[in-house]
Amino acid sequence: MNYSSKRWIEVGEKMIVKQYEVGNFSVFCYLIGDEEAQEGLFIDPADDAKRLLSEAESFGLNKIKYIVNTHSHVDHVMGNAEMLKKTGAKIILHEEDASALIRTPSYLLEMFSATPSPPADIAVKEGEIIQVGNVKLKVIHTPGHSPGGMSLYLDGMVFTGDTLFVGSVGRTDFPGSSWDVLEASIRKKLYVLPGETVVFPGHNYGSTPTSTIQYERRHNPFVRG
User: Fold this and answer.
1) How far apart, in whole angstroms, are the C-alpha atoms of residue 142 and residue 147?
2) Residue 177 — pLDDT band, cuts 50, 70, 90?
3) What is the pTM of this model?
């Protein structure tokens, strides 16, 4: 498993932000944690649960509180069952994708050699906060790739799932997807964030593992601000 990492130290708290490329589909998983509270969450832990949990433990994150899925597509949720079994964490998903989480077609499960995900424990919506210790992620509903696609904003960082990649955007040829909706999500929800906001995408599809909102506004060939 390849991985890159960054760590931010905030006044009055120690925050962990780690990026991992997991499995066979270039999915980026993120570990977010509060060292002082010793608890964390994973965003899209699609594979390699044993290694991910070993990494969390190395930072003293003894409790994984949540499994957060940016959307319900199989390549992002196929690790939910194993992570849940190992941690007892609650699964969080946007309310518009919650029902789809447990309706992945059998042919897709077979194609990805995937284990079906358990249902979501918590369905969130725009503006709600997901919190571990003193670390707070704000839900930004960014549909288009899927009806319940969401991004997560955290202190100058945004985790964009399959809405916005480095130099690209999510596909819109799936059931429930829409180019017009995706473009509006990027322009009205993501490109309005401060330019220095670091973009953490859902796949390792770009020339670099991260970008910034300003760079994507200026250079993304699919949606330019």
Assistant:
1) 8
2) very high
3) 0.94
